[in-house]
Write a structure and sequence with these properties.
Blueprint: H1 7-17, H2 22-38, H3 49-78, E1 82-86, E2 90-93, H4 96-103, H5 106-115, H6 120-126, E3 130-132, H7 136-150, E4 155-160, E5 168-172, E6 175-179, E7 192-193, E8 199-203, E9 206-210, E10 213-217, E11 220-232, E12 239-248, H8 263-268, H9 270-274, H10 291-314, H11 330-333, E13 334-339, H12 346-357, H13 362-372, E14 373-376, E15 387-389, H14 390-396, H15 398-411, H16 417-423, E16 426-427, E17 433-435, H17 436-443, E18 446-449, H18 452-462, H19 464-469, E19 474-476, H20 483-489, H21 492-502, H22 523-548, E20 557-562, H23 571-587, E21 596-601, H24 609-626, E22 635-640, H25 645-654, H26 704-710, H27 712-723, H28 735-743, H29 749-766, H30 769-781, H31 788-800, H32 811-814
Parallel strand pairs: 1-4, 1-13, 4-12, 13-14, 14-18, 18-19, 20-21, 21-22
Antiparallel strand pairs: 2-3, 5-6, 7-11, 8-11, 9-10, 11-12, 15-17, 16-17
Helix pairs in contact: 1-21, 2-3, 2-5, 3-4, 3-6, 4-20, 7-31, 12-13, 12-15, 14-15, 21-22, 22-25, 22-30, 23-24, 23-27, 23-29, 26-27
The structure holds pyridoxal-5'-phosphate (PLP).
The site of pyridoxal-5'-phosphate has 9 residues, from helix 7 and helix 25.
GO biological process, one term: glycogen catabolic process
GO molecular function: glycogen phosphorylase activity; pyridoxal phosphate binding
Subunit structure: Homodimer. Dimers associate into a tetramer to form the enzymatically active phosphorylase A.
Length: 817
């Protein structure tokens, strides 16, 4: 039975969600019952909570259909420039609540479900996450889809429909254990398979140079089956498409050539082809040169480009000349954005289609390709850069290898031999490799980093030579997140109190949050914000106590650090901070401390030894501190199991010290010092107190031992790790962690220890109810820049050459219901 809803919850809903119309409520109830009966074939005596979730999902989905069809029809008729966002990852999370929010029907559904004697929140929790991503890169793609639909762009997301998304993380005895993410087990109510649009993708084979041109022959074919998912804009009647490809073996797979006579074996072998879309590679910022991954990358590129070209040819523009499609206009009608180098094969594949298939001259084809493609760089970490062995290419994609060689020869116009070697797409050495980032930079008209400082590093280090040759190519597009999911949906209470002050327009124009600066001293507003925060923390505390059997002090500072576990992401620095706080509490019993609940969460790549050790370290520290009666509830350390999009939504409402959804760090860049956790939104705006350190300084010839010997509290923490203080059952447990920190720490954790401790000390000083809330309000007011709507508007104007339109598609014109 549904719990009675509190008055404050109703108030929030009224202020942001609109008032439920009675007729609409009855319609949702009817539709729910109809789907329970006809779609799920159940009555209320035998229906499970999951049946109720599916019945509601179908009832909500029905409201997308007319808008979806009409939006696509509108694009066909008007033929605007299409934006194609190509990504190996779309970290979408759940869809039900997001759809209700964007269609403005959450309140109506809440009321209908309540009248049916059910609880909407409970049903929402049943939905599986679409975990088709690892972290920031995949979530960015998902936020961008929301913003592109909200801004009325004719945009498409293209990717792979992995049968298994990012693994589920279990913690056993403090260690991470992976479980397969069988997210499609109960079916996916949001996707529509389109077997009629299946396309062939070729692999292997050989190249023949004939008088009529180049032929790629004797290939093996795998079919790409599209599955479409609707992407609704926020209350604008626009519904775009995310098209994900699934691998299907052709029906004659292995029947003619190989297993003649062994029919059973041939059918079983279909798995080989279909393995291409089986599972997401679980690496974040790490390149693993597996052939199956290269197959995935070509699979999505080959299927997507066929689809793009089919749509171009069927449009008014492409087919104006009925005899020969005019491909010179292709870049005026098509933009392809490459989410990192993962879909980099788009460049040689487009060249192959234009030159080998469409018989275009090489130079013309190259101009078209360059004007069409743009590349987003996400990292400068060397181990993350894709460098494929030439031998693997030669076998799997022989024609593409030839094309890449030609691109390298013809379009790398460099005289200086040393520079030429540095800039080559082909890296010489024991194992010749293709540098995919170099291919992307050469084959794109725009290259962007994802934060101001990152884009500077891109120009001054990894792509320095390229920047000097073509400076006009290089841009910055600071990342953002969608305010629909990350504010309206996950923190309706906060959205409600904001709306009371500045109206609802901030939902699609987040820069309006700066109006809140007028209310920093408004006592009523301060109290309202503090109240929402306290309610969220209480709810989250109850969840934590239930889940982790740890007593939580809900008025303690919530110090949340959630992201993929990686040596560069500073979890070890956080551990050293926690250990130091613990040692101070034990050393000075009479001193008062600001109580903290530290929560750390994130997945480690299954093959990343040190990341898995970091998880064991966090859980081990927690075991000692949480069970020390001396400490009580002044310090708790909890590892948040299975951090994912739906969990981030939970955590975002409750965070105290913020490290959630910050603007990105310069991955692998300089050591980050003097970052104020209390002022996240100002990270870009605030000049660093210490500039990038000159090479004469202590930092450049980093010597961990100097810090260890000079800073007693740091030494004590490290000695405790060495002696097994936090791992009494296995004293040697953390020797590899200590050895790394002391002898080969690429990320120079000790160099940041002191500044980090001091900064956290200032945070403690600030943590007084009223002052803290005022800081929170200031931070909210200056966070408006980090909307993905702003990011996408910049991509649209500065890379794609299109203008976003805030105007909604007229409902009368567009929607048949
Ligand atoms: C936003 C998000 C990320 C990226 O977080 P960073 O702190 O930028 O690394 C990773 N995982 C999930 C589930 C997210 O929602």
């Amino acid at each position: 039975m549904a719990a009675p809803r509190s008055d404050s919850e109703k108030r929030k809903q009224i202020s942001v969600r609109g008032i439920a119309g009675l007729g609409d409520v009855a319609e949702v109830r009817k539709s729910f019952n109809r789907h329970l009966h006809f779609t799920l074939v159940k009555d209320r005596n035998v229906a499970t909570p999951r049946d109720y979730f599916f019945a509601l999902a179908h009832a909500v989905r029905d409201h997308l259909v007319g808008r979806w069809i009409r939006t696509q029809q509108y694009y066909y008729e008007r033929d605007p420039k299409r934006i194609y966002y190509l990504s190996l990852e779309f970290y979408m999370g759940r869809t039900l609540q997001n759809t209700m929010v964007n269609l403005g029907m959450q309140n109506v559904c809440d009321e209908a479900i309540y009248q049916l004697g059910l609880d909407l929140e409970e049903l929402e929790e049943i939905e599986e996450d679409a975990g088709l991503g690892n972290g920031g890169l995949g979530r960015l793609a998902a936020c961008f889809l929301d913003s592109m639909a909200t801004l009325g762009l004719a945009a498409y997301g293209y990717g792979i429909r992995y049968e298994f998304g990012i693994f589920n993380q279990k913690i056993l005895d403090g260690w991470q254990v992976e479980e397969a993410d069988d997210w499609l087990r109960y079916g996916n109510p949001w996707e529509k398979a389109r077997p009629e649009y299946m396309l062939p993708v070729h692999f292997y084979g050989r190249v023949e140079h004939t008088a009529e041109g180049v032929k790629w022959i004797d290939t093996q074919v795998v079919l790409a089956m599209p599955y479409d998912t609707p992407v609704p804009g926020y209350k604008n009647n626009t519904v775009n498409t995310m098209r994900l490809w699934s691998a299907k073996a052709p029906n004659d797979f292995n029947l003619q050539e190989f297993n003649v006579g062994d029919y059973i074996e041939a059918v079983l072998d279909r798995n080989l082809a279909e393995n291409i879309s089986r599972v997401l590679y679980p690496n974040d910022n790490f390149f693993e040169g597996k052939e199956l991954r290269l197959k995935q990358e070509y699979f999505v590129v080959a299927a997507t480009l066929q689809d793009i070209i089919r749509r171009f040819k069927s449009s008014n523009f492409g087919s104006r000349d009925p005899v020969r499609t005019c491909f010179e206009t292709f870049p005026d009608k098509v933009a392809i954005q490459l989410n990192d180098t993962h879909p980099a094969l788009s460049i040689p594949e487009l060249m192959r289609i234009l030159v080998d298939v469409e018989k275009m001259e090489w130079e013309k084809a190259w101009e078209v390709t360059k004007r069409t493609c743009a590349y987003t760089n996400h990292t400068v970490l060397p181990e993350a850069l894709e460098r494929w062995p030439v031998t693997m290419f030669e076998k799997l994609l022989p024609r593409h290898l030839e094309i890449i060689y030609t691109i390298n020869q013809r379009h790398l116009d460099v005289r200086d031999l040393d520079r030429l070697r540095r800039m080559s797409v082909i890296e010489e050495g024991d194992c010749k490799r293709i540098n995919m980032a170099h291919l992307c930079v050469i084959g794109s008209h725009a290259v962007n980093g994802v934060a101001r400082i990152h884009s500077e590093i891109v120009k001054n280090s990894v792509f320095k030579d390229f920047y000097e040759m073509e400076p006009e190519k290089f841009q910055n597009k600071t990342n953002g997140i969608t305010p629909r999911r990350w504010l309206l949906l996950c923190n309706p209470g906060l959205a409600g109190v904001i709306a009371e002050k500045i109206g609802e327009d901030f939902v699609t124009d987040l820069s309006q949050l700066k109006k809140l600066l007028d209310f920093v001293d408004d006592e009523v507003f301060i109290r309202d914000v503090a109240k929402v925060k306290q309610e969220n923390k209480l709810k989250f505390s109850a969840y934590l106590e239930e889940t982790y059997k740890v007593k939580i002090n809900p008025s303690s500072m919530f110090d949340v650090h959630v992201k993929r576990i990686h040596e560069y992401k500073r979890q070890l620095l956080n551990c050293l901070h926690i250990i130091t706080l613990y040692n101070r509490m034990r050393k000075d019993p009479s001193k008062s401390f600001v109580p903290r609940t530290v929560m750390i969460g994130g997945k480690a790549a299954p093959g990343y030894y040190m990341a898995k050790m970091i998880i064991k370290l966090i859980t081990s520290i927690g075991d000692v501190i949480n069970n020390d009666p001396y400490i009580g509830d002044r310090l708790k350390v909890i590892f948040l199991e299975n951090y994912r999009v739906s969990f981030a939504e939970k955590g975002k409402t409750a965070k105290g010290v913020d490290s959630l959804k910050l603007p990105p760090l310069p991955a692998g860049g300089s050591v980050n010092r003097d970052r104020s956790p209390a002022a996240p939104a100002q990270r870009e705006a605030t000049p660093r107190t210490e500039p990038a350190t000159a090479c004469t300084s202590l930092l450049c010839r980093y010597n961990a031992r100097e810090y260890y010997e000079r800073i007693p509290e740091l030494r004590q923490a490290i000695d405790q790790l060495s002696s097994g203080f936090f791992s009494p059952k296995d004293p040697g447990c953390f020797r590899d962690v200590v050895n790394m920190l002391m002898n080969h720490d690429r990320f120079k954790v000790f160099a940041d220890y002191q500044a980090y401790m001091e900064c956290q000390g200032r945070v403690d000083q600030l943590y007084r109810p009223r002052e803290w809330t005022k800081k929170v309000i200031k931070n909210i007011a200056s966070s408006g820049k980090f909307s993905s709507d702003r990011t996408i508007t910049e991509y649209a104007r500065e890379i794609w050459g299109v203008e976003p339109s805030a105007k909604e598609l007229s409902r009368g014109l567009l929607v048949h219901t």
